Amino acid sequence: MYISMSDRNGGKRDLQALEPGAVEPLKRPFRLSPVIIWLGVVSMLTDVSSESVSAILPLYITGFLGLSTIAFGFLDGINQGASAIVRMAAGYASDRIGRPKGVAVAGYGLSMLARIGLLFAGGFWALTAVVTADRIGKGIRTAPRDALIAVSAQPEYLARHFGVHRMLDNIGAAGGPLLAFLILMLIPNGYGTVFVVSLAFAVIGVAVLTLLVPNLRTRRTDRAGRGAGEPDSVRPDSKTRPAWGFRWRLLREPGLGRLLVAAGILGLLTVGDGFIYLVLQDRDSFAVQWFPLLYVGTNVVFLLLAIPLGRLADRWGKARVFIIGHVALLACYLLAAAPIGGFGPTVACLVLLGAFYAATDGVLSALASQLTPPDKLATGLGAAQTVVALSRMAASVGFGVLWFALGPAVAMVVVGTCLAAGVVASWYILRGGMLLRPAT
After folding, report:
1. What is the per-residue DSSP string for 151-164?
2. pLDDT of 296-352, one tens digit each?
């Protein structure tokens, strides 16, 4: 059997799926593009900005502002899913223009402006507007950024390249909560100071992207087969221009439709990190100033495992690693709901949650980019990201209601039971599309 995979230098190539356990020899040595490094630095700075805020948001909403878990579930749902409004449109615009950098700059810039709004937002609706703007900015930037990574990477090492980017990204994701923790230790209730520092890092990130990341092409430029990322002097061939309007037949690309279905099912059962951390705090009753360190722990594990799991995904199968990541998430749910507190179980939850992200975040982007035609690269990535964002938004809102009705531990058990069924269903969905066999 064969899986049709996108060739980053144009057209398509049919790659024979290897038998389970077989490893295709990799012919070229791994070489990291400077573009991926600079994009990683941009993501690192931006994540210091965003995660320093995200780390205090659960306490800021439920403690400082005194809102309910339903209100937090609504805001966390927006945090998870508002970006879905524009992800596919941003991906399509990137494909149409053929130069994703401008679209990415617009997304990073909007998130930077939202940081200014945080300085003045003091109520539920003001926070809703600010969080929505920030997440829309994330939705605009993510697909074009990942398209730049995909065209700068060696195809046979695609998941590893995404792993390198995610590692740099998560250095910022770990540094942001740590910075918030230090600020709150020095300045009790210093939420405003956290917001100011967050804005500063966002400004620096936009400056690095604008000044240091080249404006690469992401589709073929002429009949001679010049590849993506070629110099500006090459004129695009008009016959390769994508037509306006999203083409739903893109979802019928071999494997892509199955991947979106599986990702949607699993996303509906992925509870936001803030809720998991609130469950741990409810169980152990530790002081609130330690709360941001939970984000630090998760992101440290993420950055340590991003590259190893990316390498494993390239060799063993991206969809297999994606599924196993959700098994780690299931174990995290059950351990968080267990009536055993203390330092050890809490650290184990953070390790499992970090492993989940390392096995799914970059791996999903790598898998979607391989299953998408080159001229629709950002659109395919945007479709995968949209499905995940919308499903996780519904998951956060639903879990907030479950917590209110059943309590934190029981709600976590209910979601964990459903996730176990979802993992089994997704395994069969992806197995039916031959995606569980390594094909690189």
Report:
1. HHS-GGGHHHHHHH
2. 889 889 888 988 998 898 888 888 999 999 999 999 999 998 888 788 889 999 999
- The HSE-up count of residue 364 (CA atoms within 13 Å, CB side) is 32
Q: How far apart are CA 235 and CA 221, in angstroms?
A: 6
101, 75, 53: which is closest to 378 by C-alpha? 101
Q: Nearest-CA neighbor of 137 among 206, 35, 186, 204?
A: 206
Q: In 10 A of CB 337, how many CB atoms? A: 18
Phi, psi for residue 229 in degrees, rounded to 5: 85, 10
Q: What CATH number labels 33-218+249-432?
A: 1.20.1250.20
Spatial CB neighbours of 287, under 8 Å, sequence gap ≥ 6: none
Euclidean distance between CA atoms 412 and 101, whole angstroms = 40
**Is-above-0.85 flag for pTM?**
no
Secondary structure (DSSP) of 165-195:
HHHHHHHHHHHHHHHHHHHHHHSTT-HHHHH
Which run of H or of E encompasses 405? helix 377-406
Tens digit of each residue's pLDDT (9 = 90 or more) over 147-182: 898 888 888 888 888 888 888 887 888 888 889 888
Domain residue extents for the chain: 33-218+249-432
